[in-house]
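Researcher: Good morning. I'm working through a list of sequences from a screen, and I'd like to move beyond sequence-only analysis. For each chain I'm collecting a predicted structure so we can compare shapes side by side. This is the next one on the list. No need for commentary yet; just the structure.
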Amino acid sequence: MITEREFLQRARLDRATLSIWIEEEWLIPGRAAHELAFTDMDLARANLIHDLKDKMGVNDEGLGVILHLLDQMHALRRALADTLNSARERRTPPAGG
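Model: Good morning. Structure tokens for this chain:
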């Protein structure tokens, strides 16, 4: 887990911006001992947000839509992978093979 202070440094954020990103649910940190706790995935997402806003000029409304669609896509990929794994596990090997 990454502490809030370390996350702010590594993500190149100030506390006010972090608060907005959490309020908008662009980042959803965990909690550890009454403090915010971040993961490497949160850091990657913060870098993606920076790229979308700063390098590609995406506005806040568009950013929310993009992040939501990415979350849906990842959820669908996980569901598909789970379905495929379950199907493989149910498949029986050929007789005599």
